[in-house]
Every structure is written in structure tokens, then in C-alpha cells.
Amino acid sequence: MSVLVQREAAEIREEWLGLALSTLPADRPAAEAAISELYGLIGLAPPRFHWVSSPAAALATVPPGIRLRPSESVDRMADWPVPPRLVRLMRDLCRELDSQVRWVHQPMDQLIRQEVRSSLARSSDSALVRSLRAAHDSPYHPATAWYGAQCVSWVAHYDALRRVAGVVFTPEQNRRLEPWAVVARSCGWWWPREGVCVISERPVTLHTEVWGDAGEVRLHRADGPAIRYADGWDAYAWHGTTVPSWVVTDPSVRRIDEEPNVEVRRCAIEHIGWASYIDQARLRLVGSAPDPGNPGSQLRLYDMRKETRVLLAVNGSVERDGHRRRYGLTVPGFFDDPIAAAGWTYGLSAEQYSLLVRRT
Length: 360
Prior knowledge:
Blueprint: H1 2-20, H2 28-41, E1 48-52, H3 55-59, H4 82-135, H5 145-149, H6 152-163, H7 171-186, E2 190-193, E3 196-200, E4 205-206, E5 208-210, E6 217-219, E7 227-228, E8 234-238, E9 241-243, H8 245-249, H9 253-258, H10 262-272, H11 274-281, E10 285-290, E11 298-305, E12 308-314, E13 326-332, H12 338-345, H13 350-354
Parallel strand pairs: 1-3
Antiparallel strand pairs: 2-3, 4-7, 5-6, 7-8, 8-9, 10-11, 11-12, 12-13
Helix pairs in contact: 1-4, 1-6, 2-7, 4-6, 10-11
């Protein structure tokens, strides 16, 4: 039974993931009707709608006729009057549905929460919220409750409970849940204010890769922007990390050496390939040794920059494409022994690392 439930839950998860990653034009009438209904549930009249082509345009746009309060800058969205009320609406609904489900369907709820809700939340954060962060000119706080309320994960959770576990919600509960589901199916991000709501179109291209055991995805593209909108705004990503365009389009030793961000440097080096980067940068070999944790492979230790060395190793496990990846790990500059450096990355001494049967 659990295998069948897991399969059905996975199908629902993929269905909602496809909607979250959709590059189809927004269904504007459906989105506007559903958002108007949500406004009504918090006692507000339907807003007028202002559509924009991308989140970047939305965050730089002041709809005509609107005079913003000082508190209504993007980095202070928690102080806006409407989003917190909608978040409370969503949380109250979740608490009500959870209390109804908990005692009768608890085992099924736990399975669906893990297979559907948690997995979709991770995918949303890696594939969608990261690009939204890149659109912000001001400091962005990923935990902002309003963006969490727009995540498809919680809607998909209750949808799966209805379809897989046979949970029956009341007509009133379904009436309050349905507008959230319609919005999630119909458009991109949206920003509600009193009297007006700004809505972004979906991207026109979106590239992801599978990275998790439950089918989670993250932004990645090796030859262009990972996400692009109709107005030309785009973002580049390397295995889930948002990076400057040069990391993907023209990585070079010079640019890597000049880059202050360690994660950006790492991504650019991975794009070039660690072995190729070491050769192009003419790093000095400090020492090499057979890898005790990965028989048949070599550990190579190189000088990299001031007080830093890099250990070139071969992954102990096979990648999805069947190959074993060569990767570099930065270690303190006082290491001269590759085995001691490898042990340090695991919190082990050289002697302890030498006793490993196989590293994974």
C-alpha cells in the first residue's frame, strides 16, 4: 500500500512542480479572479491589477496613481499592510486543515508531507526563490513569509491528501484553499497592496537539473542564462548557485583570481574543470599520493593563493552520468602532505584517513 501511495504522491509532486516551473504565458483572468477572491477573504475590495514582464520589473515598478509609504520599500515587505494579512489567512487555513487531518490520517499525512511538501519546498527554494533573490536590488531575506505563502508546496500537500489519502475537507475549507491553488497554477510572483496588485509573468525559459533523491531540482545551465523573462531580465546559475554571467559565458583564470566571492570562484573553476584550471593557472604541485579512501585514485596538493592550497581528488561515488568527478578542496596553506590535507577535510588525522576503506 505504501509503495502505491508513494507512487501517487510522486505523480502529484511532479504535476505541481511542472506548474511551478511553467514557462507558459500566465492565465491572467484566472489569476485576477483568484487574487480578488483572496482579497475578499481578508475584507478588502478587489484590487486593480498591474502586470509586468519579470520580478525585476515588478520590484522597480510603482503602479500609476500609487503613493508609497516609506515602509513600503521591497526590503520592508513585512511592513506592508496586505501581505501579512494574507499570510495569516493562509496559516489559519493550514492549522485548521492540519487539525482535521492529524488524528485520522497522521501516517499518510507524514508520508505526503515528506514526499510532496518538503520536496517541493526544496525545489522552489533552489529553482525559484534564488532567481527572485537575484532580482532584488536591496538586501533580500529568503525567509520572508510572503514568498513562502506563494510556494506551491503547501497547496500541493493538501491536494495530495485529498487525492491520495481520501481526506474530505468541508466545502468552506475548499472554498478558502482553491484561490491559492488557482493562483499557483496561473501566474508568477505577485505583490499585493491596498487597491492594487502587481503580478509578474512567468519566465520564457527556465533550465534546471535534478539534484535530490526525491526529484528535487535546482537552477543550472552551462551555456546560457538559467532563467530568462520576456523583457530580457535573466539570471545565470551553476548547479543551484546564482553567479555572474561570465562564470557561464567566459570563465578565465584572470577573472577567477579577481573574484572576491569564494562560491563564485568555485563555480567558475568547476566550469573550466579543476584539472584544466590548475594547468592554466600554473599552480605548483606540492605533493601527490595514492588516495587511501579511494583506491586507484591520486590525491594532488597544489599551491593556490596566499596561505591556501587546493587538494585535487576524485569523487568516491559515481555521478548521475556514470563518471567520477574530479574536484578541488581548499585547505590551509600549512599542509604539505596530501593525505593529511584529505583527512583534515573530514575532521580526521592523516593516520585516521589512511584507515578508511572507501570514501563516498
